[in-house]
Amino acid sequence: EKPVELAFMGGYLEEHPVVTDVWKPFFKAAEEAFAGKIAFRYFAENSLYSNQAEDGQGISDGRTAFGCIRHPDMFRLIGVINVPGIVPNAVVGSLVLEDVIAKFPAVRAELPKDSTHFTSWTSAAYQISTTKPVHSLAELKGLKIVVWDAVSHALVRELGAMPIRVSPGDSYWTLKRGIAEGILCPLPPLKVYGIADMAKHHLLLDAMVQGFTEEVSLRHWNGLSKDMKAWIRSEGGSRMALEIGRTLEDNVKAVKAELEADGHKFCTVAETDKPALSVALATVNAQWKELCGDLDPKLVDEVLDYARARAAYHTAAFESGKYDR
Question: Is the model's pTM score more than 0.85?
Fold first, then answer.
C-alpha cells in the first residue's frame, strides 16, 4: 500500500539542529507508528514557493501539507511574542506562544485559512553584535545596525542607533562593505551567514525573539485517518514547542562557546543602562498596540497581560531546571 506522503516546509536548511534533532526524529516516529503508511518529505525555506510572502497561501491551497509561517509583519495579536522584553529565550518564548495560540480564538484567526495548528516556537534571544567594542547604550548611539524585521527596526531606533533593514542573506555584504557596524540577531546566525569573522563584540540584551508557527493544510489533514490525526496532535503543540526551544538554546550555548574560543568578547547591559533600556522596550510595546489599533483595546491588553503572565511562569520554571532535558 502506497503511504500518505506529506510535504513538510520548515523554513530551516536540512542541517539545522531543529531539522536534524526534532523534525526528522518526528518523521521517523510517525512512519514507525503507522507501519510505513505515512511518510514526510522535508523542504527548506523557499523550496516550494517563489517567496516567503506565499507561506500562508501555500498552506491554505495545499501546496504543502505542513508549512512554517515566519512573517511578524503579517500578524497583529500573534505578534505579541515578538514584543521586546517579554520573553528571555527560545524555551520560554516557544511555550508562551503556544499558550497564547491555545487560549485566544482571535489569535488563531490570524493563522492561514483552511488550516489547523500543529505547533509554534520562537528564535533564540536577539543580541547586538558589532565590529568594534560596545559596552553601553551610549556607545551604541549613532551606530548603523543591520535588522531583519520591523520590530528589530523599531527597537534599534529607540536605542539611539540607526537601523538598516536588509534580508538575512544580505547581512554579510552590508557589514563587509562598511555600510553597517553591527547586527541585531541571535548568535547562531552569525556563523550561518559568515558574520562572525567581522562582528566579534557582543552586547547581550536578550532583547526579543522571533515567533514561528507550523500549520497543517486542511486539504491534507482531512485525508488522514482519525488515529493519525490523534497521534500527530499528541506529538505537536507544547510538547514539540518545548523540544524545539531546548534544541535552539542548546545551539546557542554551543555557538557561544565556539565564539568565545575564537576570541569574541561578550558583555551584558550595565545596571545604569537598564532604565534607558526599559524606556526603549516600553516604547516598542506601545507601537505594537498601535498596530492592533482597530481591534478591541480590552482584547489587546488581555493578550499582552496573558503573554507576560505566562512568560513569568515559564521563566521561573526554566530557571528552576523544570525544562532541562
Answer: yes
